[in-house]
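Board notes, transcribed. Complex of a protein with adenosine-5'-triphosphate.
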Amino acid sequence: MLEFDRVVLERGGQRVLDGVELRIAPGERVGLVGPSGTGKSSLLKLAAGLLAPASGRVGNRFARTCMAFQEPRLLPWRSVLDNLCIPLHAAGHDKAGARRLASQWLQRMGLAERADAWPRQLSGGMAQRVALARAFATAPDLLLLDEPFAALDPALRRELGALCDAELARTGAALLCVSHHPRELAERVDRCLRLEHGRLLPCALPCPAVPDAEAAVIPLFPQPAAPRQASTP
Ligand SMILES: Nc1ncnc2c1ncn2[C@@H]1O[C@H](COP(=O)(O)OP(=O)(O)OP(=O)(O)O)[C@@H](O)[C@H]1O
């Protein structure tokens, strides 16, 4: 279980989260939307233990929490294979076991031939695939996804999205996923939350039949209510 109790977070002198309440149970898949700069990434970093709240409590009783960021964040001085092996060593795998598992994941991502490459030799999409492989390889029971498909072309987005869904179905891991694509999110999560003015609110998932452009506009950037027209007889 992941629990936020009245969590307040301040960054750069601003109050970003203002009494956030959140519960995520094992196996639950939750989407997180909201305008740019409202604190979605910060909320994920709190869940991952990378930030600490100013007040309130973040309790994370999942055994293995993994986060994939908007950008790949690979170690530039280590090979692609080593970038996968390092967290596997930290998770208790021996050297041979870590290399075997890392190689299997690179194969699954279509990157087996890039195992000895340096991260700078990869395209942006390849680097993001390595970052996702790194997140999945440690078999997380809570996966935190911060728009990891944002920089990818649509075909690769779909391919990696499908791989992600298959892996979640296989492992039963819980998910907290930030996305600016509500329709894709609707296909991936059980429920959705919207971060606004420092608080989390339930948010309706868009109907899959709504075209992408409309679905993207409606839940993410709601317009203020139009002034009421005087009724005519
Ligand atoms: N390292 C930092 N130091 C100071 N302030 C920061 C830092 N990182 C983020 N902030 C501020 O915290 C607020 C929330 O940022 P955050 O990145 O969590 O928002 P977000 O909703 O994820 O945005 P986006 O959708 O654009 O990624 C913003 O006002 C941002 O300027």
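Residues 11-12, 14, 16, 34, 36-42 surround adenosine-5'-triphosphate (CB under 6 Å). The CA atoms of residues 69 and 146 lie 5 Å apart.
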